[in-house]
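Friendly challenge for the regulars: who can give me the structure tokens for this chain first? No prize, just bragging rights.
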Amino acid sequence: MKQTSSKQLFMLGVKEALPLALSVSTSGLVFGLLGKQLGMTMLELTLMSALVFAGAAQFAALPLIASNLDPFSIALTTYIINLRYYLIAASLLPYWWGNKTKTNAFRAFFLTDEAYALTINRYEKGFYSTSYYWGVALSIYFGWVGATILGVLGGKLIPDPARFGLDFAFPAAFLGLIIPQLKSVDKLIVALASAVLSIWGSIYLPGKWYIILAGLAGSSLPLFFSKGEKSNE
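First reply, four minutes later:
Bragging rights claimed.
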């Protein structure tokens, strides 16, 4: 079988990430538009996207920054929203095991929901490639940062981005990633349970705790399935 080079694997990652990068770019465009309308500068918004690089947390932080909330409260809110990355990164650790801690930390900075979905799908099929991961992760990263800049520049042209449904691009893209993976009853149960808990939590829980609740529940349910399988052996 012909051996694939690192460059080819990187480009494969770029190719497979392109539809998601476009979707993420749409969200980045909206972020830039909203940030500009709330009075933030081009430099502030660009640095936020480049150094924070956390879509949902950045959207949540915008109104808090605009209302002059204290930095600790803003940091705590965004930290809670991003707690799910502990779960995401932990599931990738077996594949990243053996790398230096600094290397894994740098790699984890570029980890997003979309990059994770594509990468873990490849890893679980026995296709492990660092070059592929970087092709995916960097495509999404530069798509987000670049779109933020475009959003700031076009802030005066689109006064109400939600009017055009641009804010729905992100959840729609992620649904498109999840649905094809629901190939077994246990995965379907996990997805439905997480969705129900997320909706319930968004109504009855304060802040963004429903994200953590749904994430913990979704990651814990497979343990019950595995125990059931062992007891039947």
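The chain has two domains: 6-180, 182-233. Confidence is low (pLDDT under 50) at residues 227-233. Your move, everyone else.
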